[in-house]
Design goal:
Structural class: alpha/beta
Order of helices and strands: EHEHEHEHEHEHHEHEH
Largest sheet: 8 strands, parallel, barrel
Strand order of the largest sheet: 1-2-3-4-5-6-7-8
Oligomer: single chain
Radius of gyration: 18 Å
Helix content: 25-40%
Number of strands: 8
Length: 290
């Protein structure tokens, strides 16, 4: 069984450092070989590509733009009336993914519109989401990219988010029926919404393209106090043959580097894997817009 491969989520880790280039350097110095970031769009892609290469890193995941956050938007994939904005954001995400050599894009579903009843608008939002996902799958396939759907818990983190359980996401993926759309498993959200992690991991792992981790309920390091037994969960992922990345998407309780002692212990025990080609597309992280 191969050891797991970890990526640093730079939207969460190294918060004491301003700007993604500085966080990229810190991630490389901390032993990571891969990183992910929610929204890289404040920096030119060629600047990020250069910083990542200089740090010896590859980017493995970005998100589609959130929309108008001042108006409460957090993704647009399932939001009625925002189809054109979703497609424009997808185009921007694809440009960045190509420039950064990033194989995956999280296609954010978005929130139930303010003032709307979730049950009343669920069917309409699903129709919009299916339409947008079919369009996205075609666009991504042309560039050999994978789109991901991530359920976000509605009990603590985002009560208005449309996509909130792995069962709902898997059903939507089945309806779309495109092989380059997969499930993003954030163990933090899955535990809060449904628990039953052993059963759910075994059931859904065949369609999972990316994993993220944080302790519950505090969303700290896997080694921080909480409900989850991460040594068991990491072993389960290994036993089930998971080959993708495990994103460290948590809030450091103190210094990020000191808080990585859990990961250094894992590497000491299981080895520090080389990041190999994933068979999704050839890794190419240009220094400039070639």
């Amino acid at each position: 069984m191969a050891p797991l491969r970890f990526s640093a989520n730079l939207s969460w880790l190294f918060p004491e450092l301003l700007g993604l280039p500085a966080r990229l350097r810190a991630a490389g110095s901390s032993g990571f070989e891969a990183v992910e970031v929610a929204w890289p769009y404040d920096e030119p892609p060629e600047v990020l590509a250069r910083a990542a290469r200089e740090a010896g890193l590859r980017l493995v995941l970005i998100n589609t733009p959130p929309g108008d956050q001042e108006k409460g938007e957090m993704g647009l994939g399932a939001v009625p009336g925002r189809q054109e904005a979703f497609r424009q954001g997808l185009e921007q995400a694809v440009r960045y993914a190509k420039a950064l050599g990033c194989p995956r894009i999280h296609l954010m579903a978005g929130r139930v519109p303010q003032g709307a009843d979730r049950i009343a608008v669920k069917a309409e939002m699903e129709i919009v989401f299916l339409e947008n996902l079919r369009h996205a799958a075609g666009v991504l396939a042309q560039e050999d990219l994978v789109g991901l759907l991530e359920p976000i818990n509605t009990r603590i983190t985002d009560p208005q988010y449309f996509l909130d359980t792995p069962q709902q996401a898997a059903a939507i993926l089945q309806k779309v029926g495109r092989p380059n759309l997969q499930l993003q498993m954030d163990i933090f959200h899955w535990q809060i919404m449904d628990g039953n992690l052993t059963g759910n991991i075994r059931e859904f792992l065949p369609i999972v393209g990316h994993v993220q981790v944080a302790q519950v309920p505090g969303r700290g390091e896997p080694s921080s106090p909480g409900e989850l037994n991460f040594p068991y969960l990491f072993q389960l992922l290994e036993d089930e043959g998971y080959k993708g990345f495990v994103g460290c998407e948590y809030q450091p309780r103190g210094d990020t580097v000191e808080g990585l002692s859990w990961l250094r212990s894992y590497w000491d025990r299981r080895g520090h894997p080389e990041v190999a080609s994933e068979g999704l597309h050839t890794t190419h992280m240009p220094l400039d817009s070639e």
